[in-house]
């Protein structure tokens, strides 16, 4: 029977809407035809793709807001400690570790059969004051600082050994083009300034010595796509850096592309983002989207509830999430897609000055502050539900690189 075009379209549309849980599908799609569990994690598993979120561990135990932990458990198959595995939170006083909040998150993940991304062993932010002030006043010299870094990595990786799927070993070690007067990309931050760039290879080797199985990642933002491969191309600098690390026998397993996007910028399309991930994985590395959110400027009209200003931002956010999801699906070595918080009720964007003052950017996550799905959430569901062969294939597991030398 030849269906009229409009009838066919109607059936497809109803099927789509039914899948998204928006309206009951028409009778032609029996409930059994639709997956019972339409969570992000269930739809991600169609492709062997882990869907994750950064977790605010205070919100996770907030008895006045049980929805937060219900959503973390029901929607995601991997979790990342937003803050509680960072050095300032783990060792606020030299030699005294505060493991409990991170251990609580790991227990939650194990109970909910979720993987855990460890974040972060080495970063220039959220370092304990005793460390940074010791270096500043000269009481901690270069030799002791390197020993302290090795000790920190060894203690932390050993404590969590067997419970971490992927470690962000080194985070944001490279400048942005606008950060230097000549725009030339180079190494940046506390560790490069005090130890030189060799700390990066050291960190991976020390992490591998403490855990033979965890996948060890380099993690950074603004590496969503390659540029002109010139001196101001951050993505190309990171590509050359990880290629060199691997060639020297450093035990690196993957590159994490954070994916912090803002709708007021041009950003990239799915083909550009897919090409970048596939170029990193062509080095024999896994890839992952590790901190995805897509924020917007909260103009006075947006804050006043003007839908003519809210709608384009909501749609642009959904587009940006989808670009990165389609890129990840296109790369068989992209193992996970993690959002940096899943509700506007708990998003770092709301309390961070991103250049235009605190509280002037937002709308960055998948669910609104009342945990209601936004276009970005349903767009990711559709991407996961409708993707398939031949261009989207199941993930290829990554074997931990033992390293050499
Ligand atoms: O823990 C202290 C608390 O004791 C104090 O009372 C309170 C008052 O200021 O501050 C608390 O520390 C805050 C910390 O989050 C833990 O909640 C810091 O002020 C706050 O600046 C910090 O923000 C975090 C930010 O990293 C720090 O750079 C955000 O929550 C976190 O989402 C964000 O995450 C980073 C990734 O780790 C790396 N990639 C970029 C991403 C966004 O910046």
SSE map:
Elements: H1 5-19, H2 40-44, E1 50-55, H3 57-60, H4 66-75, E2 78-81, H5 87-90, H6 100-111, E3 115-122, H7 129-136, H8 142-159, E4 166-171, H9 189-195, H10 199-210, E5 215-220, H11 234-247, E6 254-257, E7 260-262, H12 270-281, E8 286-297, H13 300-303, H14 307-330, E9 334-339, E10 361-362, H15 375-386
Parallel strand pairs: 1-2, 1-9, 2-3, 3-4, 4-5, 5-6, 6-8, 7-8, 8-9
Antiparallel strand pairs: 8-10
Bound molecules: ligand G3I.
Q: What does the main sheet amount to? A: 8 strands, parallel, barrel
Q: Order of SSEs, N→C?
A: HHEHHEHHEHHEHHEHEEHEHHEEH
Second rung of CATH, namely the architecture: Alpha-Beta Barrel
Number of domains: 1
Count of strand segments: 10
- Silhouette: globular
How is this structure best described in words?
By secondary structure, this protein is of the alpha/beta class. It has one domain (7-386): Glycosidases (TIM Barrel, Alpha-Beta Barrel). 40% of the residues lie in helices and 14% in strands. It is built from 15 helices and ten strands. The protein has helices at 5-19, 40-44, 57-60, 66-75, 87-90, 100-111, 129-136, 142-159, 189-195, 199-210, 234-247, 270-281, 300-303, 307-330, 375-386, and strands at 50-55, 78-81, 115-122, 166-171, 215-220, 254-257, 260-262, 286-297, 334-339, 361-362. Helix 8 (142-159) packs parallel to helix 10 and helix 12 (270-281) runs parallel beside helix 14 (307-330). The protein is globular and about 60 Å long. Bound molecules: ligand G3I. Residues 82-83, 125-126, 171, 258, 291, 348 line the site of ligand G3I.
């Amino acid at each position: 029977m030849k269906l009229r075009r409009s009838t066919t379209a109607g059936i497809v549309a109803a099927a789509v809407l039914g899948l998204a849980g928006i309206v009951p599908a028409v009778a032609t799609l029996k409930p059994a035809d639709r997956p019972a569990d339409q969570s992000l994690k269930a739809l991600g598993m169609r492709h062997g793709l882990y869907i994750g979120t950064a977790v605010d561990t205070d919100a996770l135990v907030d008895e006045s807001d049980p929805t937060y932990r219900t959503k973390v458990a029901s929607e995601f198959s991997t979790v990342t400690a937003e803050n509680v595995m960072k050095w300032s939170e783990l060792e606020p006083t030299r030699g005294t570790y505060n493991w409990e909040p991170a251990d609580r998150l790991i227990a939650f993940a194990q109970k909910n059969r979720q993987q855990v991304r460890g974040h972060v062993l080495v970063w220039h932010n959220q370092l304990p004051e005793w460390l940074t002030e010791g270096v500043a006043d000269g009481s901690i010299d270069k030799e002791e600082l390197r020993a302290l870094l090795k000790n920190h990595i060894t203690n932390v990786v050993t404590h969590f050994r067997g419970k971490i799927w992927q470690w962000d070993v080194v985070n944001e070690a490279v400048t942005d083009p606008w950060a230097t007067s000549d725009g030339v990309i180079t190494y940046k931050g506390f560790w490069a300034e005090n130890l030189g760039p060799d700390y990066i290879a050291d960190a991976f080797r020390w992490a591998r010595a403490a855990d033979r199985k965890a996948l060890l990642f380099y993690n950074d933002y603004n590496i969503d796509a390659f540029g002109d491969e010139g001196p101001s191309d951050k993505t190309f600098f990171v590509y050359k850096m990880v290629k060199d690390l691997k060639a020297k026998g450093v035990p690196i397993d993957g590159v994490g592309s954070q994916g912090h996007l803002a709708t007021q910028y041009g950003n990239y399309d799915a083909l550009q983002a897919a090409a970048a991930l596939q170029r990193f994985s062509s080095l024999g590395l896994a890839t992952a989207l590790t901190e995805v959110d897509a924020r917007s400027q909260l103009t006075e009209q947006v804050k006043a509830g003007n839908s003519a200003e809210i709608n384009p931002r909501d749609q642009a956010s959904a587009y940006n999430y989808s670009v990165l999801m389609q890129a990840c699906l296109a790369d068989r070595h992209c193992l996970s897609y993690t959002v940096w918080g899943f509700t506007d009720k708990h998003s770092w964007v709301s309390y961070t000055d991103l250049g235009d003052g605190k509280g002037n950017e937002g709308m960055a996550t998948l669910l609104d502050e009342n945990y209601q799905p936004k276009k970005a959430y349903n767009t990711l569901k559709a991407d996961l539900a409708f993707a398939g062969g031949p261009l989207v294939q199941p993930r290829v597991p990554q074997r931990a690189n033992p390293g050499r030398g």
